[in-house]
């Protein structure tokens, strides 16, 4: 949304910062609109726009942020990336240096000896980069350049033909540079076509908003934050930002990085584009230029913004610590219900299963403390689970460190699993992580870790085997004659693997006692959790008791995951007990209440542990 300057109520405090800046500098009319390209002298010196685009694609804007102007030298930074992609870093470095020249942008200065331009941000280097681009199928470079720049803007850009013609008719100095590059062999062919391509590249029409999004794309590792398209390879982003920080503001680059601290690029059309890597992009548009050819208000706005929002690269805070929460499995369990002895063993031994929940961006500085903590805590552990659900992004070196952590600890006998890895999964495996250590979610990871602990107990071998009704936990304390009376009124039901036992919304008219097999309770209805298991019951356990207490319909689906046999206690029988066997009813209710409170205690303990 473009906000009219001075509109009464800025919608957000961030917009308010931009409005204040806009007001502070709107009456500044210092500087001269470029006129050495005659067509540029028509620019309105009052035009002024400020834009910030975040790494996730939100755009804050004030002023003339949608007014088109020519990109000019800002294109140099981006097209350098295309040349790198086309020719590779080594060849480009042989032909174009990366040293600040201290000269004006249009200086006819080449490095003594090699004849290579000092850097790709001055005209000589930019013309060389343009001449090194591959041609498209029709033999034209400008079509590729236009498409490439459009990828950064996230929309189809075009060329201002009048500005192009105007520069082509008067750009004798740039022609001289082109021929010098040809003379020293930096360009391999007649530079005429290269120069026309370069003039057209400089005449690509953009808006202030485009510049902010282009900068945000650079801030986002080359991925356009709105379209999600890869505009440029991440490796080239690093190179582009490096030369922007040392050379992007011409002979004012040293002072710029000192005061503003953001890689940036300006153009004689009045645009400035600045990048805070990993966070945001800034675009400013104001045509009057200072002696170095940088937009006067562009420099001032960026200087103020950097100071007011603490954007200077060398004072920006480090990454968020990646270790968000550590807990163990004595309190937090998998969804699989356990028998009494299993519960007891897990309560005693669960501390040997540790979960580390990670968050944010994984880079060396955030992941190193995780690695250290894992090593410090490893002794005595049986399993370590890294939960990646809140990880937003990761670079390859930090994934490699995690893969090595898994390998190293596994060699020492500690089972390490990673869950909720999503798109990071294949990348972790590519870095050497054992594929078996990836678990889809925390529930599966905890279940596997619990099985490891339980497997040491001889009783585990018999776990899951068929039981008789009297062995069901809830019925165990009943007197034999009561049980026999009940059993006669409880029909048996069988379910094949995959068959539903109850469905969400069904009336709760029976309670189930599992004699054999396994069922899962799964979330139903819309939403991302749909189908996720929230409970697992095995032989000896019972479910469906909540409906006996509150009469509400079933809240979730229950599905047999193995061939399953149950005894079913109909609600009608339960109600008959009021008259026929009141003592039995009290006993049953006691047992049901006990089961519910055990459950509630478990959930409370989990909630407590998860709060950290
Ligand atoms: N097209 C302009 C030139 O080559 C670009 C210069 C600039 O924006 N600094 O002179």
Description:
This protein is an alpha+beta fold. It has 3 domains: 299 residues, Beta-lactamase; 134 residues, STAS domain (Transcription Regulator spoIIAA, 2-Layer Sandwich); 142 residues, Jelly Rolls, CATH 2.60.120. The protein is 40% helix and 17% strand. The strands form 5 sheets. The chain has a 5-stranded antiparallel sheet with strand order 2-1-7-6-5, sandwiched between helices. The structure holds glutamine (GLN). The site of glutamine (GLN) has 11 residues, from loops. Glutamine (GLN) binds next to loops. It holds the Pfam family cNMP_binding. Belongs to the glutaminase family. InterPro entries: Beta-lactam/transpept-like, cNMP-bd_CS, cNMP-bd_dom, cNMP-bd_dom_sf, Glutaminase, RmlC-like_jellyroll, STAS_dom, STAS_dom_sf.
Examine the coordinates and then state which fold CATH places here, giving the name of the CATH topology of the largest domain. Answer: Beta-lactamase
* Count of beta strands: 20
Helical content class: 40-55%
**How do the strands of the widest beta sheet line up side by side?**
2-1-7-6-5
Query: How far is it from the N-terminal to the C-terminal residue, by CA?
Result: 40 Å
> Stretches where pLDDT falls below 50 for ≥5 residues?
none
CATH-level-4 superfamily name of the largest domain? DD-peptidase/beta-lactamase superfamily
What fraction of the residues are assigned to beta strands by DSSP? Answer: 15-25%
Named at the architecture level, the CATH assignment of the largest domain is 3-Layer(aba) Sandwich
Total count of helical runs of at least 4 residues:
21
**Which value, in Å, is the CA radius of gyration?**
34 Å
Return the CATH class of the largest domain: Alpha Beta
Q: What does the average pLDDT come to?
A: 93
Mind summarizing the main beta sheet? 5 strands, antiparallel
Shape: elongated
The computed structural class is alpha+beta
Total tally of structural domains: 3
List of distinct ligands in this structure? glutamine
Domain Cyclic nucleotide-binding: 474-595
GO molecular function: glutaminase activity
Catalytic activity: L-glutamine + H2O = L-glutamate + NH4(+)
Domain STAS: 343-418
């Amino acid at each position: 949304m473009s906000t009219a300057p001075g509109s009464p109520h800025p919608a957000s405090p961030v917009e308010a910062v931009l409005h204040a800046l806009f007001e502070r500098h709107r009456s500044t009319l210092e500087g001269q609109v470029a006129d050495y390209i005659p067509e540029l002298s028509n620019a309105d010196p009052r035009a002024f726009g400020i834009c910030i685009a975040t790494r996730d694609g939100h755009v804050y804007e004030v002023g003339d942020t949608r007014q088109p102007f020519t990109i000019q030298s800002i294109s140099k930074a981006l097209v350098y990336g295309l040349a790198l992609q086309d020719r590779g870093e080594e060849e480009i470095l042989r032909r174009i240096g990366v040293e600040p020249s201290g000269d004006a942008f249009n200086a006819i200065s080449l490095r003594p000896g090699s004849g290579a331009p000092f850097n790709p941000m001055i005209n000589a280097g930019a013309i060389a980069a343009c001449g090194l681009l591959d041609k498209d199928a029709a033999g034209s470079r400008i079509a590729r350049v236009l498409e490439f720049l459009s990828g950064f803007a996230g929309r189809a850009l075009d060329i201002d033909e009048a500005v192009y013609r105007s520069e082509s008719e008067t750009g004798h100095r740039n022609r001289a540079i082109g021929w010098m590059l040809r003379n020293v062999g930096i360009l391999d062919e007649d530079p005429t076509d290269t120069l026309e391509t370069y003039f057209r590249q400089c005449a690509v029409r953009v808006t202030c908003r485009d510049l902010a999004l282009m900068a945000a794309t650079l801030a986002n590792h080359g991925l356009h934050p709105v379209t999600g398209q890869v505009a440029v390879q991440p490796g080239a982003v690093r190179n582009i930002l490096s030369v922007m920080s040392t050379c992007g503001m011409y002979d004012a680059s040293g002072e710029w990085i000192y005061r503003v601290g953001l890689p940036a690029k300006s153009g004689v059309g009045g645009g400035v584009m600045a990048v805070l890597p990993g966070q945001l992009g800034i675009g400013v548009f104001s045509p009057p230029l200072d002696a170095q050819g940088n937009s006067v208000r562009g420099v001032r706005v960026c200087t103020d913004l950097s100071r007011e929002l603490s954007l200077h690269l060398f004072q920006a805070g480090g990454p968020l610590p990646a270790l968000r929460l550590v807990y163990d499995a004595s309190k937090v369990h998998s969804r699989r219900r356990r028998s009494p002895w299993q519960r007891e063993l897990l309560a005693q031994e669960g501390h040997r299963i540790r979960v580390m929940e990670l968050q944010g961006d994984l880079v060396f500085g955030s992941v190193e403390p995780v690695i250290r903590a894992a090593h410090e805590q490893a002794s005595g552990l049986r399993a370590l689970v890294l939960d990646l659900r809140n990880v937003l992004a990761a670079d390859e070196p930090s994934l490699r460190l995690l893969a090595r952590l898994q390998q190293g600890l596994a060699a020492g006998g500690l089972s390490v699993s990673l869950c909720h890895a999503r798109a990071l999964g294949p990348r972790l495996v590519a870095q050497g992580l054992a594929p078996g250590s990836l678990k889809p979610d925390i529930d599966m990871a905890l279940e596997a870790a619990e099985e490891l602990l339980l497997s040491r107990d001889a009783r585990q071998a018999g776990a899951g085997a068929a039981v008789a009704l009297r062995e069901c936990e809830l019925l165990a304390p009943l007197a034999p004659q009561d049980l026999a009376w009940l059993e006669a009124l409880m029909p048996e039901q069988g379910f094949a693997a995959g068959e539903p036992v109850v469905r969400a919304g069904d009336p709760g008219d029976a309670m189930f006692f599992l004699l054999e097999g396994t069922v899962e309770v799964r979330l139903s209805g819309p939403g991302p959790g749909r189908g996720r298991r929230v409970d697992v019951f095995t032989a000896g356990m019972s479910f469906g008791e909540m409906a006996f207490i509150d009469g509400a319909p079933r809240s979730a689906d229950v599905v047999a995951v193995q061939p399953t046999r149950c005894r079913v206690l109909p609600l009608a029988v339960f109600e008959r007990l009021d008259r026929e066997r009141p003592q039995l009813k009290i006993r049953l209710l006691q047992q049901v209440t006990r089961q519910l409170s055990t459950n509630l205690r478990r959930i409370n303990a989990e909630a407590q542990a998860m709060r950290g």
